[in-house]
Design goal:
2 copies of one chain form a homodimer. By secondary structure, the first copy, chain A, is α/β, with parallel strands linked by helices. Chain A contains 11 helices and 11 strands. In chain A, helix 7 links the parallel strand 7 and strand 8. At the A-B interface, helix 8 and helix 9 of A face helix 8 and helix 9 of B.
Chain lengths: 344, 344
Amino acid sequence: MTPYESKTGATTVIALDAMGGDYAPDEIVLGAAAVASPSLKVTLTGRRAEIERCLAEAGSSSAKYLDIVEAPEVISFNEDAVKAVRAKTNSSMVIACREVAEGRADGVVSAGNTGAMLAAAMFNLKRIKGLKRPGLCAVLPTPGKPTLFIDVGANSEVRPIHLLEFAHMASIFAQDVLEVTNPSVGLVSIGEESIKGNDLVLETHGLMADSPHLNFYGNVEGRDILRNVVDVVVTDGFTGNVCLKLMESTSSLIVEEVKKAANSSLKARIGGLLVKKELMEFKKSIDTEEFGGAYLLGVRGLAVVCHGNSSRKAIASALKYAARAAEQKLIGKLEERIKELQPV
Amino acid sequence: MTPYESKTGATTVIALDAMGGDYAPDEIVLGAAAVASPSLKVTLTGRRAEIERCLAEAGSSSAKYLDIVEAPEVISFNEDAVKAVRAKTNSSMVIACREVAEGRADGVVSAGNTGAMLAAAMFNLKRIKGLKRPGLCAVLPTPGKPTLFIDVGANSEVRPIHLLEFAHMASIFAQDVLEVTNPSVGLVSIGEESIKGNDLVLETHGLMADSPHLNFYGNVEGRDILRNVVDVVVTDGFTGNVCLKLMESTSSLIVEEVKKAANSSLKARIGGLLVKKELMEFKKSIDTEEFGGAYLLGVRGLAVVCHGNSSRKAIASALKYAARAAEQKLIGKLEERIKELQPV
């Protein structure tokens, strides 16, 4: 983790919910301290005394690029998302979103209650003009290059036009923020042929195939999502959410079982030790913290929703990608594309 | 693989598509030869000469429990499912289904084109009286005990009543065929609370909660599917199909990468060898061939749809479970339950 360096000389400000996450505020503040720089200023929202204690303990040299905005309340993981956001207007999460809404920050990052962060961003940040639905885009650490997966839970009921909007927004994000050239887009279905799928997919397939500026590959199946068949995988927020949680649990279950196997006898333990370095490298290559979290695309100001168990590394990644997006004027590009999608 | 033994003294006949599958007819015929017995007779459908050659090569002692019905045509993997089933009425697959439809067999097994086998079973076997939709039920080899997952692709558009039917049918299958006591049922959603989900799930949740004879647990999330949270996981055929293919590819991808890691240096290779036995045992414990294939519940006569790459072991398992189902009078029990679900 190195301090952020701007490619354009611009200075970006990202608001960070310092109190959200299993390891808040320590890991959150340390993530910010690791990447803050003359070109990336971070506004930490939360209880000033606690944040200052973390900074003092870290003895970070980047403190001058960190700003604190007092927020007395905290939204916890077991609160009802919508109610909490409405009631706790002085929470670190809501205040972080307000920093963006009122123009003092370009993006916002939180590892707090996912549902609450989605609600806080939706309520506080304006939607891009003409856009019907923002979508939550996860970045999957697939071998070689990342795969974008949208929507992973912002919308449990969608229409074809929403999926088309997701495809365009995630393509622009892939190209401009993750530097994927001419990203290809796949539509999740139950067969590769264009005639396979439910009514939603069948209609969306036609829309995507006819849409300019979209490098549409066609349908992809469940087995293709992690296999780098396409760069951007599009589905509704119900299917996407179920799939995201399923793949996280499948891989952690298998890693657990492999560990158990390598601990089941003395011989196996020795074998496990000999192969440990390589296994750790593999584990690192599928590290979800590499890309920080999921990106809510379609609101004015990028909102990054991090895993509750985010370490400083995930927070640092999220801040860097949020800064990159601001520097690349992502929101302006999304606005332009959404405008082109409007019926004339 | 041992010859099938009846628990009740009954004799069961299962029709087997000898020509369907990547390793047909050899592996298919050998699977049948392994389990055929005085209480499980297998009717092999396909090209008699090829089947006889396989049997002669195997020199099986169970040949007297195997019967051959000539079928000159074969449906291949790249054919359009519905068209192929309509056109090739003398294919090994269609003829195997007809053995059940015309009362000469109690169930049917095929490792051929999945879509075609679904279509062949739906067209040829009658639906259980009063049932709205048959569902395709996969058996996931989760640690400790299997998890049933329905629907994995028979219905891409469903209504709440269809999901309720799936839940009841899979519960009876779990209890009577897989010997799971009082199986619990979970409904796939994007949050555990009953108010979370799309419109389909919200309405289904209420139906399931109120349904007698159903051990309804509530909603489960993607991360719960493989974690033995419930015995029966219910979802629509779109989500189920995407999830099934996703989990298969996730686990094979990780196993590939672990293998690669254990081959990347001499030290790692030695380590890999030392831990190999334990890893193979783990791999065996998640062996999808253990349960043969996916079971189409709701037609009169159980239809088992096996993976294209099925070995003799998968075929043998499928035949055994199909025989067990027939012995347990599964279809009669499903009919009774579906009758109880009818509005009075």
